[in-house]
Design brief:
The protein is an alpha/beta fold. It folds into two domains: 165 residues, ATPase, nucleotide binding domain (Nucleotidyltransferase, domain 5, 2-Layer Sandwich); 167 residues, Nucleotidyltransferase, domain 5 (2-Layer Sandwich). It is 43% helix and 17% strand. The chain is built from twelve helices and eleven strands. The protein has a six-stranded mixed β-sheet, with helices on both faces. Helix 4 packs antiparallel against helix 9 and helix 8 crosses helix 9. The radius of gyration is 21 Å and the shape is globular.
């Protein structure tokens, strides 16, 4: 029995950990997705995955106590073998050995959540722009998570960096100045002027993630009525790039029919989402678009539910899985095609999960 009298041993517990995005988030639910606990931590940088993972999972592990929780941890950048091996080592170190744990890339969890665990195509515009696909065979692929983020046209970091460049050009007299844009950036970052903001960047006191966070105010500036012309032009350029990414990705997958498709990421909201949908519906009409079903932590939970069923299959000689059956054994594994194919079998998963 955990703290507060929760009879955790009578429940199938799911633990979903999202270490991507602008923060690390851990959610603990039962098999229906009813929230039992959650934890937060800053997003991991290049070297502090262990610190951020530990900070996010600790509140949830206190509720789990000595019980079991099938766990999926999503980490960015796992398309590189060295990064995946590092993530496996960190997860083994932080999480209790008795837990059955799977790891996956952030894009896998994004896709699982957005498409509700079904095959299809995902267009992502967060810190970087990327596409991912999941085929009926359970084969997952992506454009790769280790590309140089500053070169990803359509991503939140690209929009933020290009908007700052436009503001600086206006300040220097190389293009029409936008006082509204300058005021917005200065207020968002809490500085006195653009020169101070540039100094922070030059000294490395402003991380790429912090810069990318300004995409929220950039989207506001580009929205109607009265959009800032420079921001609006950037939004339209980003939309065209994302449509091109969609075209390339849709031709890569092995689809029996036109695939379902969805979107995710901090930049794909408001005016950029509207512009993207307007163009992609026009130029790629065969794709079957649907709004995201779950956010990334929900994708982790859905994969954990599928992984538990895989473990039951493997551990019981192929008997019909059930949430009261023997859970998978301890250890850390990679989410694989077996997990995805089990996800396809889930009927209305996580009906109690609310974002």
């Amino acid at each position: 029995m955990g703290p507060g009298g929760l009879e955790i041993l009578r429940l199938m517990l799911l633990l979903g950990v999202d270490c991507g995005g602008d923060r690390s988030l851990c959610v603990l639910t039962d098999e229906r997705g009813n929230l039992l606990a959650e934890g937060h931590a800053p997003a991991p940088g290049e070297s502090n995955l262990e610190e951020c993972l530990r900070g996010a999972v600790t509140p949830c592990l206190e509720v789990v106590g000595e019980g079991d929780a099938t766990t999926v941890v999503a980490v960015p950048g796992l398309d590189q073998r060295q990064a995946r091996m590092h993530a496996l080592a960190v997860v083994r170190k932080v999480l209790p050995e008795r837990l059955a744990v799977w790891i996956c890339s952030s894009l896998e969890a994004e896709l699982a959540g957005s498409l509700g665990g079904r095959p299809g195509l995902l267009i992502h515009a967060g810190m970087r722009a990327a596409a991912a696909g999941l085929e009926r065979s359970g084969r997952f692929w992506s454009t790769g998570e280790s590309q140089e983020v500053l070169g990803d046209e359509g991503s939140s970091l690209w929009l933020a960096s290009r908007t700052l460049q436009l503001a600086v050009r206006g300040m220097e007299g190389r293009m029409a100045r936008s006082p509204r844009l300058e005021r917005t950036l200065v207020a968002y970052f809490g500085v006195d002027d653009l020169n101070e903001l540039l100094a922070l960047l030059d000294r490395g006191h402003l991380t790429p993630g912090e810069l990318a966070g300004s995409v929220s105010v950039i989207l506001e500036l580009a929205a109607y009525p009265g959009p800032d012309p420079a921001c609006r032009a950037l939004i339209l350029k980003a939309s065209r790039q994302l449509v091109q990414l969609t075209r390339q990705a849709s031709g890569r997958g092995r689809w029996a029919n036109a695939p379902s498709a969805s979107w995710s990421g901090s930049a794909l909201h408001g005016p950029l989402l509207e512009a993207f949908q307007s163009e992609v519906f026009k130029y790629l009409p065969d794709l079957r678009w649907r709004a995201p079903v779950f956010p990334t932590p929900g994708g982790c939970l859905l994969l954990a539910l599928a992984a538990a069923a895989v473990g039951t299959h493997r551990g019981s000689g192929g008997l019909k899985p059930g949430l009261t059956s023997i859970p998978p054994g301890p250890g850390v594994r990679n989410v694989d095609q077996d997990v995805w194919r089990e996800a396809f079998r889930l009927k209305e998963p996580l009906v109690g999960y609310r974002t």
